[in-house]
Design goal:
Elements (H helix, E strand, L loop, with lengths): L1 H6 L4 E12 L1 E8 L1 E10 L5 E8 L7 E8 L4 E7 L1 E2 L2 E7 L4 E7 L7 E13 L2 H16 L2 H11 L14 E4 L22 E7 L1 H4 L16 H32 L2
Antiparallel strand pairs: 1-10, 2-9, 3-4, 3-5, 5-6, 6-10, 7-8, 8-9, 11-12
Length: 258
């Protein structure tokens, strides 16, 4: 991973800032843009994030955690990723007239700072999928494996986790009508995983079969946009057929009623 990050180092940079007086919250402008498409993820609740798109810096939402900005004149994309540094966390906020603001805060009036060297990370690339892979690899090398550090910190403070669920996308789940010892093969409907049950405390097949370093090696498989689009279309069609079948069964049940 370090070799991969080193080879792409010229495409990325850490962003820092400094102010005269120590503060617990700093709101600093980092530029402005308009008439440029962006894709972002912002935190709309304490524990939940969602997607947001726009074309102006003022279109951004408060507590934005990631921005991918299109740069058509270079046929490229730029990723802006707020980071944690020491006791401070960062987020992107909208400003006036297309301005983009970087918020750096500790969350406590007792914890203040005035100088930061890596409160955000910027990376440029001509493929948004490779861009995210390379940027996240660089941040991982910079910060370390944060999940492990979090677990280690809990253990050192007398709260050793016994079982950690990172995300339901890792879980081994299936539905009642399926093989009770196999991962579900029918999760095409939106929210369909909510109807499943956890059948073992291990990662599911797609993660269990992953070989470390696969996406970072020189011959890593490239993202296939056409294949992705076709798979997505198939999922939509399957979901439509399932919905139509369910409605037909309900109509048939009504017809059979006396």
């Amino acid at each position: 991973m370090h070799k991969s990050v080193d080879s792409n180092a010229e495409n990325g940079a850490f962003l820092g800032l400094s102010v005269k007086d120590p503060l617990d919250r700093i709101l600093n402008p980092i530029g402005k843009f308009s008439n440029r498409k962006f894709l972002s993820i912002f935190r709309f609740k304490t524990w939940w994030s969602t997607m947001w798109v726009g074309s102006n810096g003022s279109d951004l939402q408060m507590e934005t955690q990631l921005v991918i900005l299109q740069v058509p004149e270079l046929n490229s994309y730029v990723l802006i990723l707020p980071l944690i540094e020491g006791n401070f966390r960062s987020a992107i906020h909208p400003g006036n007239d297309g301005e983009v603001l970087l918020s750096v805060e500790s969350g406590s009036t007792q914890v203040k700072g005035n100088s930061f060297t890596s409160c955000a990370y910027l990376h440029i690339g001509n493929n948004p999928y490779d861009l995210m892979r390379d940027a996240f690899a660089a941040v991982r090398v910079h910060l370390g494996t944060w999940v492990w550090h979090g677990v280690k910190s809990l253990a050192e403070n007398g709260i050793p986790p016994k079982f950690l669920i990172i995300d339901d996308g890792w879980q081994s789940i299936n539905m009642d009508h399926e093989d009770p010892f196999q991962d579900s093969k029918d999760l095409t409907g939106l929210g369909s995983q909510m109807l499943c049950r956890l059948y073992r405390f291990k990662e599911n097949e797609k993660f269990a079969n992953y070989q470390a370093g696969t996406i970072l090696r020189p011959d890593a498989p490239q993202f296939d946009q056409e294949n992705h689009d076709n798979m997505f279309k198939e999922m939509i069609e399957l979901a439509k057929r399932k919905k139509a079948l369910k409605e037909a069964q309900e109509d048939f049940s009504l017809l059979r009623q006396p």
